[in-house]
Amino acid sequence: MAYENTDGGASAGSWGEPGVSDSLRTFGAVLQALREHAGLSREEFASAVRYSKHTVASVEQGRRMPDGDFVERAEEATGNTGALRRAAPHLTRKAGLASWFREWARLETTAISLCTYECRVVPGLLQTEAYARAVSLAVPPLPGPEELDQRIAARLERQELLAVTRKPPTAFNFIVEQAVLERGTGGDGVTRELLDHLLELIERNWNVEFQVMPTRQPSHAGVDGPIMLAETPDNQWFAYSEGQQNGRLISSPKEISLLQQRYAKLRSQALTPEDSVGLLKRLRGAL
Predict the structure, then answer these.
(1) Helix/strand number for the chain, H first, E second
(2) pTM above 0.90, yes or no
(3) Contact, 65 vs 24, CB < 8 A?
(4) Which tens digits make up the pLDDT trace of 187-226?
(5) Cβ atoms of residues 135 and 127 within 8 Å
(6) Which domains does the chain have, with CATH numbers?
(7) SS3 label, residue 237
(8) Cβ–Cβ under 8 Å, residues 56 and 49
(9) Can you tell me the distance from the alpha carbon of 105 to that of 117, in angstroms, rounded to the nearest whole number?
(10) Do residues 258 and 266 make contact, with C-beta atoms less than 8 angstroms apart?
(11) Which residues contact 142 (CB under 8 A, 6 or more apart)?
């Protein structure tokens, strides 16, 4: 799903198997060497660790992030050398995030400010588990249970970035279209929980500024689609653009300047943070 939110997809944030990275390749090569040293065929090893042959092949080829159970069972099956257990924490690609989104997700972890305009779904950093699940199940092809759980876990893990206890805490600004909040994704129960979550988050996290773009806004600087901007600790700016099954990290100063101009205009066109909270409360009261 290519929405994040980019979470690379489903709003900015996203899904799919990890792309190949050096750490995944290395882990996979070590796993294959240990398996072969133990005298196990791929089929025999798959049976021993209780995962499919396809999953084992994907891990050995560096295309799939192994979960904790896989690592522990693989250790037992290959003689408990400790090599896999020690290597696992250093894997850099996270399951549940689309390959095109991962570089942006890495930038998020150290950014001192993050700005997000979203017109498709509530940004992944603000989603509840139920809303994230509903979004994931709304767009074909439907994920299997394991993939769905990975997507949700990856999205919820990213939300730790919102904590005011981070040093220094990241400054967030979100602009979300009113229509997204009124869409009712997942049904009334999911929407009620989402609105309660947003109101609590805004009240609790002084580093989070939330604005609603009203449905009726004759002058709108965001007609070209979502915008995501990040400022690094050395005050360098990056941007991210996402579409159907793809995403693009932007480092060109000229392109970023253009997007910053558009985002500044969006902030002036959206409801103030105070009026946005009032709208959220009215929407919640109407359910």
Answers:
(1) 12, 8
(2) no
(3) yes
(4) 999 999 999 999 999 999 999 999 999 999 999 999 999 9
(5) yes
(6) 22-90 (1.10.260.40), 102-285 (3.30.870)
(7) strand
(8) yes
(9) 16
(10) no
(11) none
